[in-house]
Amino acid sequence: MADYRRCYVPGGTYFFTVVTVRRAEILANDRARDCLRNAIRYCRSELPFQIDGLVMLPDHVHAIWTMPADDCDYSKRWGIVKKRFTQIWLESGGPEQTISASRLRRRRRGIWQPRFWEHLIRDERDYHNHFDYLHFNPVKHGLVENVVDWPYSSFHYWVKQGVYTADWGSSAKEHEVLSSIQCEGE
User: Fold this and answer.
1) Which helix (H) or strand (E) holds 16?
2) For the chain, where are the alpha helices, taking DSSP H only?
3) Strand 60-66 versus strand 50-56 pairing type
4) How many CB atoms lie within 10 A of CB 96?
């Protein structure tokens, strides 16, 4: 088994990719959005953190979180979010992938892959690249032609805040530039 080493920095800002089991396309619908919102709200009531950006695609979630100045345990937070999402999702009749006896013994359900990918944001440029990458992702995956057309994204919040214009990412030149941004973990 690989030796996974995570970078924990109190107050750090991180880009995450969290993927469903076997890339099952169970996300990016109103039920999943409500379950994720509830799970995050529940986690934040216990262990606060700031959500800078988030997008749900059919088989994965990208998020940028900023941790409290005295805390860096994002792994615990993701564990709580994934567990709570799974509970609410299954209670609401959401589907899951078949699970092996091994997964069952480890009390894992057929919703999320066991791990997630994280990247510590290094500086402002890195932050902006990941922030743009996250919001452009539905276009990159061919789910919509314009960023504004994807409903499961914090993009709409940031348009209201004046960070983006509603037509951001729509021109051919922007498509070219945004498509060239490479972020690991996808």
Assistant:
1) strand 13-19
2) 30-46, 74-91, 101-105, 124-140, 155-160, 172-180
3) antiparallel
4) 16
Q: Annotated catalytic sites, by residue?
A: 152
Token couple for 103 = 């997964």
Neighbours of 114 (CB within 10 A): 9
Place of tokens 């919102």: 37
Q: What are the extents of the domains in the chain?
A: 13-180
Query: pLDDT per residue over 64-115, tens digit each?
Result: 999 999 999 999 999 999 999 999 999 999 877 777 666 666 666 778 998 8
Which CATH class, in words, describes the domain spanning 13-180?
alpha beta
Torsion of CA 124, 129, 135, 136, to 10 degrees: 160
Do residues 162 and 126 touch, judged by C-beta distance below 8 A? Answer: no
State the amino acid at position 76 in one-letter form.
K
Q: In what order do the strands lie in the sheet with 13-19?
A: 50-56, 60-66, 13-19, 117-120
Its pTM surpasses 0.70: yes
